[in-house]
# Entry
Amino acid sequence: MINHLLLDIDLAAVDWARAQFALTAIYHWLFVPLTLGLAVVMGIMETLYYRSGKEFWKQTAKFWQRLFGINFAMGVATGIILEFEFGTNWSNYSYLVGDIFGAPLAIEGIVAFFMESTFVAVMFFGWNKVSKGFHLASTWLTGLGATISAWWILVANSWMQHPVGQAFNPDTMRNEMTSFVDVALSPVAVDKFIHTVLSAWVLGAVFVVGVSGWYLLRQRHVEFARKSMRTGAVFGLVSSVLIMLSGHHSAYTVAQTQPMKLAAMEALYKGGTDQPLTIIAGINPFRQGDYERQDEPPLKLAVPYALSFLATNDLHGYVPGVRNILDGYVKPDGTQEPSLEEKISRGRAAIAVIGDYRKAKQAGADDSTLAPLLATIQADMPYFGYGYIKDRAQVVPYIPVCFYAFRVMVGGGCLFILLFLVLLWRPRRWSYWLALLCIPVAYVVSESGWLVAEFGRQPWTIQDMLPTWVGVSQLGSSSVMLTFFLFLLLFTTLLAVEINIMCKAIKKGPQL
# Structure
């Protein structure tokens, strides 16, 4: 199977499969963060109703729950399609690692999804039918179920970023799970979950203050808008402070597990100690740039020592650049990181020895013959994916996207902090306009974070283990291209419908 994959790859199908998956993921992520953010907001509003008994807070909670429900339904529709694409477009990937990757997805579907489905019905239809306490618990459990869903999805994604708790079985030609705990609680998974959920809370808070700002600009539902805005601003400010702390830890984890991603985010061509953090630089957004010869990008404005601190928790720490990673470098702990050429050699050796092992096994070889082959497979398996790499350019992510998407994410986060502070300290009419305009900005910032995470991992479907072109299904490019445009039409229609329904619900306002 592996040698067949080496020789029979439709690169056009790979491109279209990647485009289709990216399309689905981008549209899906338009709905998920608002679901997670509004889940907390509506829980806070109903808690205030439970404690005060005031009808005002009940109607406020019901209004935000209504918007939550509209968005939640659209997110479910796109999410189901996303999971099916692993089987339709990425069947080789699913075959090789389905025993590991499928576990968190199954748990997400069985536990979290059914938990959401159960309690969301009580939340929407249980008013005046169940006790206030039970209804409040249902509201919070609906949000908890959505968050648990996000946890297991992010566990699966994080395993692709940093594969742990698994081993390759040459008899079955599959990677098999050796430790569920390692998969579920890897440092990458924990960091990604915290950072992603906090970013969703910030987006939810921006949405709340933006909608409230619209009401204040029109002088409608003024009390509702002012109290919702204050609640959203406090929630957003707290989330923003927490996301700054989690961002530092995430940068440290990326530096340890995916140094090429960090180098691409910083356009760091030649690394070293005492590395500054780039604020902005003259990176051409339409070409990769000559990272093989340049030491640093032009027009660079940076904060001294900041990158070394983020990546190593040491102002003078060593951070490798793109060329260092390609050429091989000595890690701070004294171990030697192999060059790309050595990794390619060992990866091809692993592929060849796996073939020898399977032939020997079929021929009835005894354990004394198989043991050295197994030892060689185990030693070279960490570089297995490099056996499919042909040149240095293939392992370098597209630097302009990583570089600018990271700065959009960080810059947007800083803007939101200022927005929340202004709304809490001295809100004015211009700040209401800013809050309203920040709603689309928040979505751009949120999508930018995912672009950094996924573009920075390229060319790997699974980091160092499986390039994208090896994981694709054996499909004709025309079939994938057709479904790409069908999904584009479908998702665009769903988005237009959601925006239309949401706008109508907002124009109608709370039933106060």
Observations:
- The chain is about 70% helix and 5% strand.
